[in-house]
Amino acid sequence: MQNQTTYNPLNLPARIEGPDFEITYVYSADGVKLQQIVSANDETTTMEYSGPFNFINGELYEVRHAYGELRKIDEDFEAIYKIYDHGSTSLTMYLGSPRVIFWDEDGDGEISSCIVLKKVYSFLA
Question: To which H or E segment does residue 57 belong?
């Protein structure tokens, strides 16, 4: 079976089905993604989105903000910072593409890892 995508009335993907997986999306009336349910290999994972807060199976996983995110690693949250190509506005995380991502990988209080992204993802593509 080839992957099959079903769209909702807002032309957003509502369900993607493949030979061994299914992804279902739930949106608000204005098109904001609220939930993603992934079923594969007899397991179901539910991601819920509430503003800047993201939950996996009911547990807080990530908090997004204009300068990056806090992401749960084991039992702690790790700060991941991002520099965007759209400047620093309240819409940065929605309009810009991240150009540099950096974080403290070994937990010693100093920035130890950095990724420089060179690809630009345009809204017009």
Answer: none
Mean pLDDT, each 10-residue run in order, the chain (125 residues): 91 94 96 96 96 96 87 84 66 60 76 71 45
Cα 117 to Cα 98: distance, rounded to the nearest angstrom: 7
CA distances from 41 to 16, 22, 119 (A): 15, 10, 33
Q: Name every residue whose Cβ is closer than 8 Å to that of residue 7 and which is 6 or more positions away in sequence.
A: 13, 14
Burial profile 5-15: b = 16 or more Cβ within 10 angstroms, e = fewer: eeeeeeeeebe
| Domain chopping of the chain, boundaries | 1-50, 61-125
Q: What's the pLDDT at 124?
A: 38
> Which residues touch 33 (CB under 8 Å, ≥6 apart)?
12, 25, 26, 27, 49
pLDDT of residue 105: 74
Residues in the chain: 125
Query: Which of the 8 DSSP states describes residue 124?
Result: T
